[in-house]
Design a protein that fits this description.
- The complex is a heterodimer of chains A (162) and B (295).
- Chain A is built from 5 helices and 5 strands; from the N terminus they run ββαβββαααα.
- Chain A is an alpha+beta fold and 162 residues long.
- Chain A folds into 2 domains: 77 residues, Ubiquitin-like (UB roll) (Roll), CATH 3.10.20; 72 residues, Orthogonal Bundle (DNA polymerase, domain 1).
- By secondary structure, chain B is an alpha+beta fold.
- Chain B has 12 helices and 14 strands.
- Chain B starts with 6 loop residues before the first strand and ends in a 7-residue tail after the last helix.
- In chain B, 54% of the residues are buried.
- The chains are: A alpha+beta (162), B alpha+beta (295).
- At the A-B interface, strand 4 and helix 4 of A face helix 2 and helix 6 of B.
């Protein structure tokens, strides 16, 4: 079978991109390979590890389980939109300060989940944080410092609001 | 690229979707939330010639109450069940069970009907459908038929749907006022498929159980309702005696397969223990329910 292609317009981090891609290509692969947005990582490609988590219309989803062409007409947000090297997002700051990452492979996906989670749960319990992180696998940290980082991030965001 | 080559269609209407399914039959696969189909495509365990994406069909995105039934259209995401307070009032078992389905990131995309159509024997929503007596509305070009949940699930990952049929809607009966419901499961990690899950409902009256529902996931090839265990709950005027009899019945009747996550014996043990816990919880709720509010 020949490779069916489609041309679609994608809105990623507020910018519009027109891409012509194979219909079977996942959003994760198009972000990384066609848009050079390599902050989104690809681990398992079965929805299990969470490394590829991005926002679709502001809600965290697995970009390995979406076809890129399905994202047309929706707003996609990736880790690149959170902060810059000079101006980190408060959640990124908290991960840095609390040693919430080692190799950093899992981090972009975790950040996208955590920022969305703290929006809905500004003062979460430890138990809620652990449940929120359940959809992410980290091979390095043992999670302790990630939980600490999320607690600290919640405090930082609270302090900013008041 | 991980998925195999396929032709992609994204119809904007149900009629167009049914036309595509009629034309391509078993060579086509419906794509709803993609949370089960996309992993299968990425692993190349599924190789459909045509993928029929129903995400553009706005007409399938409805969650409404009609004559005592909650109607859930095929594009309703699992996440919506937990976000809408009305669902808890109408079918509290759905609200309670859906939190056990994967993770929020999965439920943001995964659909209610997709979970039913996928028919994983360890999945939560099929067990809920069987417990409450849901009816599944299958549409094809040749018409509409309503399939009772207990006849819908025919084997692991197998349903009564024909290849040309779309599961257009799931209908869940709204709970009666003196019923209490509970859903509990044991899984290896939060968000994993259940090793065993139990859905229980009891109707309280005159200080005892008048009617009961018990359905199990992860305890056989399809979600099952255990009428013998339900009868045991109604027969015994003493709650704990009824629970003992129902748990023993579950342990006796259920024949779950063992796998690397849990042996058959351990799953039967879980079924018995979870029967007791869910029934106690459902009973407390049935007695404290006043006019529909559910604690
Ligand atoms: C990491 C992870 C964890 C998960 N954990 C759980 C869990 O704990 N419990 C659980 O129950 N599920 C779990 N799931 C699966 C999830 O609930 C899926 O959303 C669900 O099984 C399928 O729904 P979907 O809308 O994503 O369907 P899809 O993946 O789009 O489709 C699944 C199958 O159903 C068919 N189909 C879908 N919709 C229709 C329709 N309307 N008519 C006819 N056929 C249709 C498709 O053709 C396909 O064969 C998990 C998934 C992931 C990735
Ligand atoms: S790569 Fe998407 S969840 Fe692992
Ligand atoms: S920091 Fe290495 S995988 Fe999480």
């Amino acid at each position: 079978m020949r490779e069916p292609l489609r041309t679609v317009q994608l809105e990623v981090n507020g910018a519009a991109y027109t891409v012509t891609v194979p219909v079977r290509k996942t959003l994760a692969d198009v972000l990384r390979e066609d848009l050079q947005l390599t902050g989104t990582h690809v681990g398992c490609e079965q929805g299990v590890c969470g490394a590829c988590t991005v926002w679709l219309d502001g809600e965290p989803v697995r970009s390995c389980l979406l076809l890129a062409i399905q994202a047309a007409g929706h707003r996609v947000t990736t880790v690149e939109a959170l902060g810059t090297v000079d101006r980190l997002h408060p959640v990124q700051e908290a991960f840095w300060e609390n040693h919430g990452l080692q190799c950093g492979f899992c981090t972009p996906g975790i950040l996208m989940t955590v920022v969305a989670f703290l929006r809905e749960h500004p003062a979460p319990s430890r138990q809620q944080i652990r449940e929120a992180l359940a959809g992410h696998l980290c091979r390095c940290t043992g999670y302790q410092n990630i939980v600490r980082a999320v607690e600290d991030a919640a405090r930082r965001l609270q302090a900013r609001r008041t | 690229m991980k998925p195999p080559v396929f032709d992609y269609q994204d119809p904007a209407s149900v009629e167009e979707a049914l036309e595509l399914l009629a034309r391509h039959g078993a060579a086509a696969k419906v794509l709803a939330g993609g949370q089960s189909l996309m992993p299968l495509l990425n692993l190349r365990l599924a190789r459909p010639e045509v993928v029929v994406d129903i995400n553009r069909i706005d007409a399938l995105d409805y969650l409404t109450e009609e004559s005592g039934w909650l109607r859930v259209g095929a594009r309703v995401r699992q996440r919506r069940l937990e976000r809408e307070a009305e669902v808890r009032r109408m079918v509290p078992l759905l609200t309670e069970a859906v939190r056990f389905v994967g993770h929020p990131q999965i439920r943001n995309r995964g659909t209610v009907c997709g979970s039913l159509a996928h028919a994983d024997p360890a999945a939560e929503l099929p067990a809920v459908a069987v417990a409450v007596g849901a009816r599944l509305v299958a549409r094809s070009r040749s018409g509409v038929r309503e399939i009772p949940a207990e006849e819908f699930f025919t084997g692991p990952l197998t349903t009564a749907l024909r290849p040309d049929e779309l599961l257009a809607e799931a209908r869940f009966p709204c709970t009666g006022p003196d019923w209490g419901w509970a859903f509990l499961e044991v899984s290896n990690r939060h968000g994993d498929y259940a090793l065993c899950a139990v859905a229980a409902g009891v109707r309280a009256g005159d200080g005892r159980i008048q009617d009961a529902r018990l359905a199990y996931a992860g305890a056989g090839p399809v979600p099952v309702r255990l009428r013998e265990a339900e009868a045991a709950l109604v027969e015994h005027s003493d709650l704990e005696e009824g629970i003992r009899a129902a748990s023993a019945e579950a342990r006796r009747v259920l024949q779950p397969d063992g796998d690397l996550h849990a042996s058959s014996e351990f799953r039967r043990h879980l079924a018995a223990v979870l029967t007791a816990r869910t029934v106690r919880l459902a009973w407390t709720r049935a007695r404290t329910r006043s006019g529909g509010a559910h604690a």
